[in-house]
Recover the amino acids of this structure.
């Protein structure tokens, strides 16, 4: 075992692993090893881990459910922090949710407890923390519209909580990303009817299944929609659907998705990303911007 791992092992109480394959922790099923992989047991554990990383000058990467991310084949140096906070409490019109809670579980809780306001999130993969960091959304709505409070741990190990007013969010982004490790959020919700909610969620899921490669190994949409345009339509017009490289393929259902058809490497995916960007730039004169995070070393 490495010296760094041995030093951290004396301080850390949660789950730890050395050279942990990130392919086990991403929806793409792709990614080289994390130098050190940690799953904090509680806030104290997380704070101590971040203080240790800062004192040692070690890079950290916070990971939720591993969606919306491509980890390169050379893996991730430093410490990958996989959050484990799954609190779920409803008090009046406020729903408190832990960052590691999946969006699917969050919506199921909403249906069971007749809580409305988040139906548009149906079918979006990932966790509450990831949805906050990237301001996930669909059909004209974003997660940030509903968030009223955030708690987390700053990169120096200090705990922080703050009210949220909306200015913290942008299209597929927020000012929380990279500045703190999220523990949980409070979400403004309304009273609904379970049967109505289940029907609406089913309709949203049906639309996604019709237009997206649900069930395939992917990271979700690769590119952000340029202002006033749709990345998927630009990619389709540029003839990208069905393009392959190694084990990766541009989805034939939705061109803004790249699929791991089996054994794909990060290099395979990156090749298709660059191919897509070049084709759209050449044919439509539009520069596409990544929606997914691309991390690690080659």
């Amino acid at each position: 075992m490495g010296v760094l791992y041995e030093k951290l092992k004396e301080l850390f109480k949660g789950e730890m692993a050395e050279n942990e394959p990130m392919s086990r922790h991403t929806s793409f099923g792709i990614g080289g090893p994390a130098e050190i992989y940690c799953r904090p047991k509680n806030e104290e554990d997380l704070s101590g881990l971040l203080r240790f990383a800062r004192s040692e000058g070690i890079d950290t990467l916070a990971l939720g459910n591993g969606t919306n991310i491509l980890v390169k084949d050379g893996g991730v140096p430093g410490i990958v922090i996989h959050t484990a906070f799954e609190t779920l409490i409803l008090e009046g019109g406020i729903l408190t949710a832990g960052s590691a809670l999946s969006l699917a579980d969050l919506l199921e809780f909403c249906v069971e407890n007749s809580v409305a306001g988040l139906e548009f999130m149906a079918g979006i993969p990932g966790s509450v923390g990831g949805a906050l960091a990237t301001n996930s959304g669909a059909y004209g709505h974003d997660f940030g519209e509903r968030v009223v409070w955030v708690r987390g741990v700053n990169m120096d190990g200090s705990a922080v909580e703050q009210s949220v007013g909306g200015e913290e969010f942008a299209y597929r982004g927020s000012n929380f990303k990279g500045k703190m490790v999220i523990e949980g959020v409070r979400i403004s919700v309304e009273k609904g009817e379970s049967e109505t909610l289940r029907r609406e969620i089913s309709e949203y899921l049906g639309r996604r299944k019709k237009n997206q490669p649900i069930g395939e190994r992917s990271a979700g949409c690769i590119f952000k929609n340029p202002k006033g345009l749709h990345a998927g339509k630009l990619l389709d017009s540029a003839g990208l659907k069905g393009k392959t490289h190694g084990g990766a393929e541009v989805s034939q259902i939705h061109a803004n998705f790249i699929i791991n058809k089996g054994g794909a490497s990060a290099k395979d995916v990156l090749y298709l990303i660059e191919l897509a960007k070049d084709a759209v730039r050449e044919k439509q004169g539009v520069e596409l911007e990544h929606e997914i995070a691309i991390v690690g070393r080659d």
